[in-house]
Specification:
Blueprint: H1 2-68, H2 77-97, H3 104-174, E1 178-188, E2 194-197, E3 205-212, E4 222-230, E5 243-246, E6 249-252, E7 255-260, E8 267-273, E9 281-289, E10 292-301
Antiparallel strand pairs: 1-2, 1-3, 3-8, 4-7, 4-9, 5-6, 9-10
Helix pairs in contact: 1-2, 1-3, 2-3
């Protein structure tokens, strides 16, 4: 009986040992699976975290490239091509990082590309800064040149104004001026003989005599003399095709002639035949030479 109990107890103990071994094995397996799953989860979390970080880094790089377009700087063809190449790489990275699953190898490749992009953007920004400095220097130089040109232009305009005023003064000073102006009315006989008259009914022409004021500045040469005749009502008697310019305006003249001026006190005369009938009253005449008024005179006819 005792031997049977020993056998039973021995068998129970074996079962218990087996169960203990099984439980320990299960606990070990569960622990292994737990830690393995934990490591995988941690690695997955780490990969996702790094993935998000890379996305943010790529976006920052893209923002820095966008800033260049707001600087109003004309980029060289080389810089434009480099920027486009960087944007193409950014587009590839963004597409890769959008993938639902990314391996460690893919992640490392993306990290390397982002590093390259960061170095590129750093160098690119340095190039832009240098370009801005050069543009600023060139703008300062251009502004200086413009200021100098503006100042020179103002001086030139002032000089031209003074020269113009001087030329006008010289022209005015050198213009001929008449003195001792006399007007005589004549009746012309059939024989051609001129008889001085004072009545309008018998007058046919006017003779204007004058002298030239001595003027050393006046050109010793032929000068064109223009005569304008006004009737007693103030109307100009002139052919509408007879035009000349004097005192800064264009006007009609009644008669003209050329005289030779030698600054030698020579006397001159001009004859004017009235195409109309003379009327009673005062006739006025104005003489012009060298674009200026030369002198005035009147005659009264009864």
């Amino acid at each position: 009986m005792s031997d049977q109990n020993d056998l039973v107890n021995k068998g129970d103990r074996n079962k218990i040992y087996f169960l203990v071994i099984v439980i320990v094995a299960l606990l070990g397996t569960n622990a292994y699976l737990f830690f393995k799953d934990k490591q995988q989860n941690e690695r997955f979390v780490n990969i996702n975290t790094e993935k998000d970080r890379l996305k943010l880094e790529v976006e920052k790089i893209e923002v820095e490239l966008d800033k260049v377009n707001t600087l109003n700087i004309k980029l060289s063809e080389k810089l434009i091509n480099e920027q486009q190449l960087a944007r193409d790489k950014i587009a590839e990275l963004k597409a890769a990082l959008k993938e639902g699953f990314i391996t460690q190898v893919d992640l490392e490749a993306a990290q390397a590309k982002v590093k390259e992009l960061r170095e590129f953007v750093t160098n690119y920004n340095e190039s832009i800064i240098q370009l801005r400095k050069e543009n600023s220097y060139l703008k300062a130089q251009l502004d200086s040149i413009r200021d100098s040109a503006s100042s020179a232009s103002e001086r030139a305009e002032e000089l031209e104004r003074r020269n113009y005023e001087l030329r006008e003064k010289v022209k005015t000073s050198s213009a001929l001026k008449a003195s001792n102006i006399f007007i005589v009315a004549y009746r012309v006989k059939s024989s051609g003989k001129n008889i001085e008259v004072t009545k309008a009914g018998t007058a046919k022409k006017l003779t204007v005599s004058f002298e030239i004021v001595p003027n050393s500045l006046a050109q010793k040469d032929y000068h064109k003399i223009y005569l304008r005749v006004f009737d007693p009502t103030g109307n100009l008697i002139a052919n509408e095709n007879n035009m000349f310019e004097a005192d800064g305006q264009e006007m009609q003249y009644s008669s003209s002639t050329s005289i030779s001026f030698n600054d030698d006190n020579t006397s001159y005369t001009m004859n004017w035949i009235n195409p109309n009938e003379f009327i009673k009253g005062t006739y006025s005449i104005i003489l012009y030479a060298d674009g200026y008024t030369m002198g005035r005179a009147n005659i009264e006819l009864r």
